Every structure is written in C-alpha cells, then in structure tokens.
TrEMBL record:
This is DUF4352 domain-containing protein. Keywords: Membrane, Transmembrane, Transmembrane helix. It comes from Nonomuraea corallina. The chain crosses the membrane at residues 15-37. The lineage of its organism: Bacteria, Bacillati, Actinomycetota, Actinomycetes, Streptosporangiales.
Length: 219
C-alpha cells in the first residue's frame, strides 16, 4: 500500500502492512464464517462402515447394516424382514454389562451404561411397535450380556412392514461414556458423557456414523 501524494510531485514511500496482521484478520474472518471456533470443534466425527470408535467403556466396530429375512416356519405365516445394524463390541470395563436398547429420544437416554444406550439417535426413525430390538450372539444363542474383555457381535434391528422398502442408509448419533461422579451424587461410575440442555442433560454426540443398507431378498 502507498501513502497519498505529498502535493509536490513526489509520491511518498510505500507503507508496509505486517503480514501477521493480515493473517489475524484472515483467521478471524474464517472463524466467523464457520460460526465460531468452538462450534466448529463441537461437530461430531463423521464415520462410516468398518470404523472403530473408542467409547470409553466400549470399543465398537461398525460392521454393517443389512436386511435379514427370517423364513416363516408354517405355510400360513409370512416371512419376517428386519433391518439390522451389526456391531463388534468389546467391553473394556471390569464388569459384565447389558446390551440394552437404544432410547426413543436422546433426552431419554438417562445415565445408563448399556451399549445400546449410546445409540442416542437412529435415522430414519424407527416406526412405533416395529422395534428396536437388540441382542448379542454367543455362538448360536442370543444373550443380553457383554462380558469384560470379550469382543461380541451385537445386533440392533427393527421389523419392516410387508412390502416396505428398507432405507438406502442409516445414520447413527453415537455417544460415549466416562468413569466419573454422577450429577446428583458423588458416586463414581460409568455414565454417558452429557451436556446441559435447559434444566436437563442430553448425551454428547461423539460420532455420527452412516451405514449403507445391504438389500436382502425381495419382499
């Protein structure tokens, strides 16, 4: 940038603008456009199929989402079709815990420490009375237990209506756990990492996981 002419036919010398000042202005502008540095940092981590997430109490691999068809046992019964989300879950704690169920709403997750309690939102939303259902597999048997140090396959699923098409993809908002004192007392225990929302607390979404849904047999 150059100073104005001095009126005597001789232009004044250039004025140097510090590079650091320009950088500060640029960074401030970028932060403003992003809605602020704090808001940008608060965005959950986007993950996809095959990702592994450290949830504090669990190490979770997001294996796949699929359509599973259970054939009817009797001729007058209809086949049952389910959309299933498949996880490999390792209990990193020292006690056996339950698989649990995803909450109907994030604010209903409460302070439980079951695995499925951390799936605070499933999109598209599951229809009423169609699920969700959740269980772990121990060989050929279903169980609700996750034992310490063991990697266990967990299925979370819901039923499709006759003729209903499954979604192309499923998105999960996933929270994590911390071993810390409770909000209401000083008991140290595993609980969902949460943040204030008005007069209550809701789980903090650590990651947003999107899984393509593998189609099964046609309805």
């Amino acid at each position: 940038m150059t100073e104005p002419h001095d009126g005597r036919g001789t232009p004044r010398r250039p004025v140097a603008v510090p590079v650091a000042s320009l950088l500060i202005v640029t960074v401030v502008g970028i932060i403003t456009l992003l809605g602020g540095l704090e808001e940008a940092e608060a965005r959950p981590e986007p993950l996809g199929q095959g990702a592994v997430l450290d949830q504090g109490l669990y190490s979770t691999a997001f294996v796949e989402a699929r359509v599973n068809v259970e054939k009817a046992e009797l001729s007058f019964e209809e086949d049952k079709r389910f959309v299933e989300m498949v996880f490999d879950v390792t209990n990193l704690g020292e006690e056996t815990v339950s698989v649990g169920l995803p909450p109907a709403k994030p604010e209903e997750a409460g302070f439980g420490h079951s695995f499925a309690n951390s799936l605070v939102r499933i999109s598209p939303a599951i229809k009423k009375d169609k699920g969700p259902f959740a269980f772990a597999l121990a060989g050929d048997e279903q169980t609700n237990q996750l034992h310490p140090g063991l990697k266990t396959k967990v299925i979370v699923r819901y039923r499709l209506d006759p003729g209903e098409q499954p979604p192309d993809k499923i998105t999960l908002d996933v929270a994590s756990f911390e071993y810390a004192p409770g909000f209401q007392d000083e008991t140290v225990r595993w609980q969902l990492i949460s943040e204030a929302a008005g007069e209550s607390y809701v789980p903090t979404v650590q990651a947003q996981v999107t899984l393509p849904v593998k189609a099964g047999d046609p309805p």
